[in-house]
Amino acid sequence: MVKVSIEGLFEEVEMFVEKLEEDGYEIYQEEEGFCLNRYSPYICRHIGIILDEDEDDDESYGDF
């Protein structure tokens, strides 16, 4: 699971998130941001997430 901060979320990113939903990604908003439960590095690059990869943790976190 990838947690993404929505601080400073621009209209273009909102439109991209809508496109992800149309493409079958299940995206929901938590208190701290959007969670993508089908993650791909391709998506990460396109919405500008900086990943913190931790081998001991199954989750990667990023902020805009």
Which labels suit this protein?
28% helix, 64 residues, disordered C terminus, globular, four-stranded mixed β-sheet, alpha+beta
Structural commentary:
- It is a single chain.
- The protein has a four-stranded mixed sheet.
- It is 28% helix and 23% strand.
- The chain is globular.
- It has 64 residues and is of the alpha+beta class.
- It has one domain (2-62).
- A hairpin with a 2-residue loop joins strand 2 and strand 3.
> How much helix is in the residues?
25-40%
Secondary structure category = alpha+beta
Q: What oligomerization state is this entry in?
A: single chain
Termini separation comes to 17 Å
Spans of 5+ residues with little confidence (pLDDT < 50)? 37-58, 60-64
Q: Assess the beta-strand content as a share of residues.
A: 15-25%
Order of helices and strands: EHEEHE
Strand line-up across the major sheet: 2-3-1-4
> Largest beta sheet, briefly?
4 strands, mixed
Shape: globular
Number of strands: 4
Calculate the mean pLDDT score and round it: 55
* Tally of separate helices: 2
Radius of gyration: 11 Å
Total separate domains: 1
Task: Summarize it.
This protein has helices spanning 11-22, 41-46, and strands at 2-5, 27-30, 33-36, 60-62. The chain is α+β, with helices and mostly antiparallel strands and 64 residues long.
Topology:
Blueprint: E1 2-5, H1 11-22, E2 27-30, E3 33-36, H2 41-46, E4 60-62
Parallel strand pairs: 1-4
Antiparallel strand pairs: 1-3, 2-3
